[in-house]
Amino acid sequence: MKAIGIFVLKLAAFALVYLGWQVTADWRFSPGAGAAVMWGAIALMPVVAGAARWLLDRKPTPERAAWLIVPVHCLELLLLGCALIAALPLVQAHPWVRVWFPTPLSLFLMEVFGIVAFLVVVNLAVRGLGLPFAAVLSRKLATDWLYKRCRNPMGLMTLLFFLATALWLRSLHAAVWVLCWVAPGWISFVRIFEERELEIRFEAPYRAYKARTPFFL
What we know:
By secondary structure, this protein is mainly alpha-helical. It contains seven helices and no strands.
């Protein structure tokens, strides 16, 4: 019954994420409204993480973590996706300064980081028996392969992909947004909520892994 409840919750949550992305993509934002979504959605990520952490710490059990992971991850995914959708036309129209960077190199970097991100998904599926963004909750702690020297390879590769995309767009606006806004928002979410729920679900093995493995590099 618990598994059915979580499955229904996943379907509803991912449907809402898709709907939110679709509405954002179809909306014709003014520059001011686009900037509000682009910057404001990311600013909400630590707020969501903090509220979820508070709920988790009130009853720090694996069962509570399993129920919270789905809505929290989907809400963070909704915020990040809406921010990216609003940002793309805005940073192209208002780049601040055109950054010169070889287009073939930026495309190559996007491809490399995208491939490595895919390999991280494979790594998590094979060694952790799970998938990112609460699609399938990991049943084991993945600590080897790409997770051996970095405990957040998916986050690292995603942020590097975003930065390579900013270089491809030749937009200083995009690069600053990724480095100074998206990266801190993403990292705060992981540190505030995700690491805590992993600690609750995997206990001492995760604490040992966290102690010996750097966050990114």
